[in-house]
Amino acid sequence: MASDSAMDPAANLVGSGCAAYAEAVPSGEGSVAGMAKDPVAVAASNNPLLTTLTAAVSGELNKDVDLVDTLNGGEFTVFAPVDDAFAAIPKADLDAVVKDADTLSSVLTYHVVPGQIAPDEIDGTHTTVEGQDLKVAGSGDDLTVNDAKVICGGVQTANATVYLIDSVLMPPAKK
């Protein structure tokens, strides 16, 4: 017998912004139900809230940074900054990160944790693909990732669990 979450992609959503997301993207490929059908990079590319992130991971912002095959090729938990999160970064700072392929790759992979982690198991410290830890705290509609607030989490794709967040996470300086 299939679990509720397998039958209803919206069954395990958390975050105070889920209703607004569902209202903004009620149907189609970028909706909660639509994203569940595709691998994560494809699903994100269909989501109108994730255009900057999609451009960053697809090589559109820096031709030397293309993480699409990697993201579509494994099981992940992705903390996905929405467009407003990128817009909040001063342009000169964002341009500097985008121009440096190593820095951009580091920032992007700091948003990805191996394995799919459900909202009821996400609280705690997780080691990212970038290699450093991030901390998720809270539950339900009050979840944070480091200093970012989860807008809507538990969004399923064919190979990932996605948490839309309101800030771009910066990996700590390596010691």
TrEMBL record:
Pfam families: Fasciclin. Residues 37-169 form the FAS1 domain. Gene3D superfamilies: FAS1 domain (2.30.180.10). InterPro entries: Adhesion/Biosynth-related, FAS1_dom_sf, FAS1_domain. This is Cell surface glycolipoprotein Mpt83. It comes from Paeniglutamicibacter antarcticus.
